[in-house]
Specification:
The structure is a homodimer. By secondary structure, chain A is α/β, with parallel strands linked by helices. Chain A contains eleven helices and six strands. In chain A, strands 1-6-5-4-2-3 form a six-stranded mixed β-sheet, sandwiched between helices.
Chain lengths: 210, 210
């Protein structure tokens, strides 16, 4: 016998996480974000490494409630975001990494497709950047901010890995922009999506669509 | 300054992982799989928790080289798999979780969509199951094997979480079927995709498409 009802599984999972989490200083909203990263990775270390710059959650929820434009670096992050819930809130989510023009631009400029897709996205206002994989995307967002080409309301930046990931997140935390990042090597597109979903569910005031 | 060439980043990343990994008993092929799970999560714990049942890698590569049918439980796992490389090897990958019929079937039978999508997939032979999220999908695969409804050549089973995930993987390891799983709570759709990609790259004999 095993549980077969998705929401039952999720509630039970969140209860277990909260019980195992032990002492912490998270606000109730911060807890929702941290819990979901643990839920999506099975890794309690996220308790120690999620970094929420003050106001990031509030700004994210406000943007989502207002109907915003979200851009991800990977199709995996795109896939992991609850688009049914997002549509109800009149938000859009886009990922350009697989577009033919991005391949061309990246080759032409000698940059990563992730960078080229950030340039492409920044042709219009991006409210929330969701970066799960590419340190180069995060660096590019910083450059675009410095060049006044984009003014995001929130950056969710959790690239994973050993080459520039930790540094790219440190770099983004240096900006005067609300951000949710991780300290160190851990992260990923699944983590990025889980953070967006945590914000979406809070913005939905419990009227979550399954 | 930061690295902007994808393959350069990846090679450097793998070098760092290999250097940090320390002593191990992995075969060269096992190492490729374990390294890629660490690469995709930033988490060295995968060194200790990846469980490769004997012959699983060889069977996986053989199936992929022969042109096989792969089915995933999530669109995230589907997204993370290198489909360009897969197409060159005449393999297909499918995910049914979002299909209208799956919603209907799940509701009708009172089961998860993940389970319903495994039932649906098993109408034809599935060579490799790739389960990154749903313990219920993994349990269902076991049931379908017991009912002689499916005979996979390899099961990649790395559901994540605190409700049945560890148990579902333990359950699948009990079958006389090649499997690559993780011990405990960790895993995820990104990890599942990374394992498939490791096999694809080995099957491509270094002729990897970027």
């Amino acid at each position: 016998m095993y549980l077969k009802k998705p929401m039952e599984i999720e509630y039970k999972s969140m209860d277990i996480i909260e019980a195992e989490l032990g002492e912490h200083d998270f606000s109730p909203m911060e807890l929702k974000v941290v819990e979901r990263t643990i839920h999506t990775t099975g890794d309690f270390d996220y308790k120690n490494i999620v970094s929420i710059k003050s106001g990031a959650i509030e700004e994210g929820i406000k943007a989502i409630k207002g109907g915003c434009r979200i851009v991800t670096d990977t199709t995996m992050a795109f896939s992991g975001i609850n688009k049914r819930a997002l549509e109800k809130l009149n938000c859009t989510v886009e990922c350009f990494i697989g577009h033919e023009e991005i391949f061309k631009n990246a080759k032409l400029k000698g940059i990563t497709r992730s960078m080229a897709s950030m340039d492409y996205a920044a042709r219009s206002q991006v409210d929330i950047f969701v970066i799960g994989n590419a340190p180069t995307a995060l660096y590019r967002i910083g450059e675009l901010i410095n060049e006044n080409k984009v003014a995001p309301k929130l950056i969710i930046g959790v690239p994973v890995g050993f080459v520039g990931a930790a540094e790219s997140k440190e770099y983004i935390r240096g900006f005067d922009v609300p951000s949710i990042t991780t300290i160190g090597t851990k992260g990923g597109s699944n983590v990025a999506a889980s953070i967006v979903n945590a914000l979406i569910y809070m913005a939905s005031d419990g009227n979550r669509d399954e």
